[in-house]
Amino acid sequence: MSTEPPLKATATKHRTFFERISGVFHRPTREDFIDTLHEANEQKLIDDSALKMMEGVMQFYNLRACDLMVPRSQMQVVDLSESKDVWLPQMIEAGHSRFPVIMDGDRDNVIGILHAKTILRVLVDPNFKAKDHLRAVKFIPESMPLNDLLRDFKLEHNHMAIVVDEFGSVSGLITIEDVLEQIVGEIDDEFDEVDEDADNILEDPKHGCWRVKALTEIEQFNNFFATEINTDEDCHCETIGGLIADRLEHMPKIGETVVIEGFRFTVLRADERQVRLLKVEKLPTTDPAKKE
């Protein structure tokens, strides 16, 4: 006997699901599509990792290079106008694979990228000149979308770009790892050290904002900004990320914003379990005396 009827029933079930996905594509509503992905996850059609990556890709269009870059003041650079006895220990301590190279302390004059592998030759050959073996610099505007940047990284085999403003001044740097982490989550290697307090709050004075790790304790945040967020312990949270999740009343997603006591928090990195990185902006205060 033919088993065609059960197959038809199964096909109908699958067709109904995919028809719903098709319907989402015909309606310009990203939220509906994400809801459908979550339903597919609940039905075990896609696993948690796939769901997280799809959500990361969907949020890519919201982010620009300036959202994820390491601010200029926090860039770890090599100044070849200094003695190698100065910059070589700094490179070894930092543990990065690539460093922007400048001269005479001028961070607006990045002349190349120095790869850590090149330093091996410096160690064995005293006459080796690192300046003669620099790699080309990729400069990008602050407004460059992340999806375009990732495409360029792949095509040009670059791993680092220097971000510049409209006047050509250096604003910061961004790496391919920063971009990929928006899709796959945090990427840690054997050289990453866990330090819950180091660089939890990075200032970006050019754009008037800060990048704050979600695991930053609320007490540290309050001490840094001289504020009293959540001092009444109304949600019993210990970290800024926990406070954001409490105020949103759901797991924060990339691109979501919330205003808390004069600060706007924007989620830059998050996964299905927790928020990772936030952009924090201090909102201007309104002086009632100036109102007419």
From TrEMBL:
<dbReference type="InterPro" id="IPR046342">
    <property type="entry name" value="CBS_dom_sf"/>
</dbReference>
<dbReference type="InterPro" id="IPR044751">
    <property type="entry name" value="Ion_transp-like_CBS"/>
</dbReference>
<dbReference type="InterPro" id="IPR005170">
    <property type="entry name" value="Transptr-assoc_dom"/>
</dbReference>
<keyword id="KW-0460">Magnesium</keyword>
<protein>
    <recommendedName>
        <fullName>Magnesium and cobalt efflux protein CorC</fullName>
    </recommendedName>
</protein>
<dbReference type="Pfam" id="PF21917">
    <property type="entry name" value="NMB0537_N"/>
</dbReference>
<keyword id="KW-0170">Cobalt</keyword>
<dbReference type="InterPro" id="IPR016169">
    <property type="entry name" value="FAD-bd_PCMH_sub2"/>
</dbReference>
<dbReference type="InterPro" id="IPR000644">
    <property type="entry name" value="CBS_dom"/>
</dbReference>
<keyword id="KW-0677">Repeat</keyword>
<dbReference type="InterPro" id="IPR036318">
    <property type="entry name" value="FAD-bd_PCMH-like_sf"/>
</dbReference>
<keyword id="KW-0129">CBS domain</keyword>
<feature type="domain" description="CBS">
    <location>
        <begin position="133"/>
        <end position="190"/>
    </location>
</feature>
<dbReference type="Pfam" id="PF03471">
    <property type="entry name" value="CorC_HlyC"/>
</dbReference>
<dbReference type="Pfam" id="PF00571">
    <property type="entry name" value="CBS"/>
</dbReference>
<feature type="domain" description="CBS">
    <location>
        <begin position="69"/>
        <end position="130"/>
    </location>
</feature>
<dbReference type="InterPro" id="IPR054115">
    <property type="entry name" value="CorC_N"/>
</dbReference>
<keyword id="KW-0813">Transport</keyword>
<comment type="function">
    <text>Plays a role in the transport of magnesium and cobalt ions.</text>
</comment>
<comment type="similarity">
    <text>Belongs to the UPF0053 family.</text>
</comment>
